[in-house]
Amino acid sequence: MGKEKKRVLIVGAGPAGLFCAYRLVEAGIPVLLADRMREAGRKFLLAGASGGLNCTHAGTPAELSEKYYGNEALFQGLLEDFSPADLVNWYKTMGSDTFVGNGGKIFAKLGAPEILKRWLKQFESSPLFSFQGGCEFTGFGERQGQFKFRHGNQELEIEAEYAVFALGGGSRPETGSNGAWTDAFQAAGIQVAPLRSANCGVEVQWSPHMLKRIASAHGSGTSLNIALTCSGRASTGEVVLTGYGLEGSGVYSIGYYIRQELAKSGSCKVGVDLLPGLTPEQLARRLSRPKGKESLSNYARKALGLAGLPFVLFKELEPAGDLSKVKNLSLSVTGCRPLEEAISSAGGVCLSELDDNFMLKTRPGCFVIGEMADWEAPTGGYLLQGCFSTAFRASEKIIDLLS
Ligand SMILES: Cc1cc2nc3c(=O)[nH]c(=O)nc-3n(C[C@H](O)[C@H](O)[C@H](O)COP(=O)(O)OP(=O)(O)OC[C@H]3O[C@@H](n4cnc5c(N)ncnc54)[C@H](O)[C@@H]3O)c2cc1C
CA 126, 130, 131 angle in degrees (round to 5)? Predict the structure, then answer.
């Protein structure tokens, strides 16, 4: 690794760290990239593992910024500086076209493994870049610009003019992002909001009958076309019933509001519309058909097309069987799934600790980017876009400082 002082040390080889390295090397700045894992980009690979890499989202910076809950103004600026269109162009430079899928999600045509391979290949040919795997950041050194690491059994110190931390959140620790860095940052007096599950399943205490029906439906699919609401926000995307509760992008899209409610009272009422395709007027018209002696299940199937698992869910939530409530049901969410299972995490280095360029106010020369900073967004490409845009902002500042 060499004892000489590094120009720029980047710790964390996820998309944020890799993109920051890419920009600095492109600007002619030497970079040492270190990661606790032997290989780079493990979570990036996981993100692209099923259904293709949803790398960003279509829309203007103002439209997209609404998804970065509570940090809209900050992200509008970040997305203006490095927009989805810029990211799409960057994927082109990696040899991957993109396409717009459902609901404005933008996907890379190439798979994540191929993109990562090409990305790393660009570094291999540069004398300005070096990578140190198996090297875990353990804390800040005594002096400014000194950073402590564990490499195998060895404790070592690396000195650098500038350091960029891109250590990710705490979900899916098998990818390397285990959130253990929070201790080192807190020990250095840096405020860190606790890492919490985001974009995760939620827990519902189903009845034994419902549990049985979910278990037996597994072969035929438990993904439902239903709409959820929480705190006046409507879900978008599929909702999957599981033994522990609900999963799927529909849940993730309102997960932030569910968590807010859970934090207040320990449980959260979520509105359920089992027939989002029907207007209330259409529902009333269909229910004006006399039921006669038909069983409830037959009537629901014929009048409303409500059958199978959605009907079972209806009975679970409305035991009295009043079909006029089918668009207006409610279920109790009792918690979120554990962080290890989540797609991303909320919490991280508090934004109040960072200046506009994501530099730590109390540690000039040290930057914090990507998911380890305290911002969050739903799935749909917003997370990766946020990681790239924060990396862009910090890299611009470092290029400016070193030019
Ligand atoms: C299953 C799944 C699907 C996803 N799908 C999408 C999607 O479709 N679209 C989307 O936008 N986002 C998606 N995401 C989220 C996205 O992958 C992350 O937001 C993104 O990878 C975060 O990038 P990052 O660079 O900030 O951190 P990470 O990718 O988490 O990288 C952090 C790096 O830091 C290293 N590290 C951690 N601690 C230390 C330490 N102490 N010392 C040294 N190195 C350390 C880790 O080993 C890791 O390599 C998905 C995530 C998952 C888990």
Answer: 130
